[in-house]
Design brief:
The structure is a single chain. The protein is elongated, with a radius of gyration of 26 Å. The longest helix is centred in the C-terminal third of the chain and has 33 residues, at 288-320. It is built from eleven helices and nine strands. Helix 2 (41-58) runs parallel beside helix 3, helix 6 (155-172) runs parallel beside helix 9 (234-248) and helix 7 packs across helix 8. The protein has 336 residues and is of the alpha/beta class. It has helices spanning 9-15, 41-58, 75-85, 100-110, 130-138, 155-172, 188-197, 204-211, 234-248, 251-280, 288-320; strands spanning 2-4, 31-37, 62-68, 89-94, 115-118, 143-148, 184-187, 215-220, 328-333. Strands 1-9-4-3-2-5-7-6-8 form a nine-stranded mixed beta sheet, with helices on both faces. It folds into two domains: 2-233 and 325-333, Spore Coat Polysaccharide Biosynthesis Protein SpsA, Chain A (Alpha-Beta Complex); 251-321. The chain binds uridine-5'-diphosphate and magnesium ion. Uridine-5'-diphosphate binds next to strand 2 and helix 4.
Length: 336
């Protein structure tokens, strides 16, 4: 059992035995499966059993990276036991809970496979669907998403997801039925690009689609959670959608600037109207409306100015947020 203590995503790229760029790799997998795990102790055994059975049938070299996203239950212990018994398994232990997408990113940095598959640990995504994704990738697509026909989730969740989905499609410019489904396959080229983006609050399916030239979507099954309850409350969902809006476009700020311009133009138009009216009809009540016209022009300019400042702040924000997306405490796997 080798245990590496690493710090940043770049370290893992440099030091992980499974993917060193310059050195010959001990074992490179054809397929890497990355699974974020946050308090899923009751699901892990069944998951690993079903996943392994599926991967063995495919008859390609595979590795499984479980990323423990700061679980407080027995998840990490279970995963370490599995890694000790199964040489195809690696466990990345994060220092605390960073969120599902950060955990997947940590797995991406370690994955050596030519194709990388993600799925949830709660068995809502049936591992048995993986061959379908791989078949689609083999057709030449860079990203293949699953979409859940019969979603087994509460009504409020489905409605919220539908809204987020529309927004994502708009922001990314790639229309997909189901951005929320994490049962997905990516070619390693896309995965490398995602890792290089090194973004703090990222929404991986959206990022992948914005990077890929050819992406496809296929229907996959969806089951009830095997055990436990969803880790996404209203607040976490809301935060995810804000990440999406600000992470993929400066549209809100630009809309603000546009409003400013429109108000200013309307103010000028109103002023011209008052001037003509004054010449034809005579002055209006003590010039009150003239004052309004002038005011509108200035308010418009003010909104525009705020919008512009926001634009720059937004761009600086995009540059500055270089905080590490996740921190790794250790990597556990059998030395291969
Ligand atoms: N997850 C994670 N970190 C978190 C929240 C969730 O790694 O902070 C994992 C979780 O263990 C599961 C997947 O992300 O494997 C999806 O989470 P969940 O099932 O709670 O989301 P839902 O299915 O309700 O969208
Ligand atoms: Mg789930």
């Amino acid at each position: 059992m080798s245990t590496l203590s690493l710090q940043s995503p770049r370290d893992i790229v440099a030091q992980s035995p499974s993917r060193q760029m310059d050195m010959p790799q001990k074992q490179q997998a054809d397929i890497s499966v990355v699974i974020p795990v946050f308090n899923e102790a009751a699901n892990i055994d069944m998951l690993h059993q079903r996943l392994s059975a599926t991967l063995q049938q495919i008859e390609r070299r595979y590795e499984i990276w479980y990323v423990d996203d700061g679980s407080s239950d027995a998840s990490l212990e279970r995963l370490r036991q599995i890694a000790e018994q199964d040489s195809n398994v690696g466990v990345i232990e994060l220092t605390r809970n960073f969120g599902q997408h950060a955990a997947v990113l940590a797995g991406f940095a370690a994955a050596s496979g030519a194709i990388v598959v993600t799925l949830d640990a709660d068995l809502q995504n049936p591992p048995e669907e993986i061959p379908k994704l791989l078949a689609k990738i083999d057709e030449g697509y860079e990203v293949v998403g699953g979409w859940r026909e019969e979603r087994q989730d509460p009504v409020f969740r489905k409605a919220a997801s539908k809204l987020i989905n529309e927004m994502t499609s708009l922001a990314v410019g790639v229309k997909m039925k189901d951005y929320g489904c994490m049962l997905r396959a990516y070619r390693s080229g896309i995965v490398r690009q995602i890792v290089d983006c090194d973004e703090r609050s990222s929404f991986i399916p959206a990022l992948a689609n914005s990077l890929a030239k050819r992406s496809a979507e296929i229907e996959v099954g969806h089951a009830d959670r095997f055990s436990g309850s969803s880790k996404y409350g209203l607040l976490k969902l809301l935060r995810l959608s804000f990440d999406l809006i600000t992470g993929f476009s400066l549209l809100p700020i630009q809309l603000m600037s546009l409003t400013g311009i429109l108000v200013a133009v309307a103010g000028v138009g109103f002023g011209v109207f008052l001037l003509i009216r004054r010449l034809l009809v005579g002055p209006e009540v003590e010039g009150v409306f003239t004052l309004f016209a002038i005011l509108f022009v200035f308010i418009g300019i003010l909104i525009l100015a705020v919008g512009l400042v926001g634009e720059y702040v937004g761009r600086i924000y995009l540059e500055v947020r270089r905080r590490p997306t996740y921190r790794i405490r250790a990597i556990h796997h059998l030395s291969r």
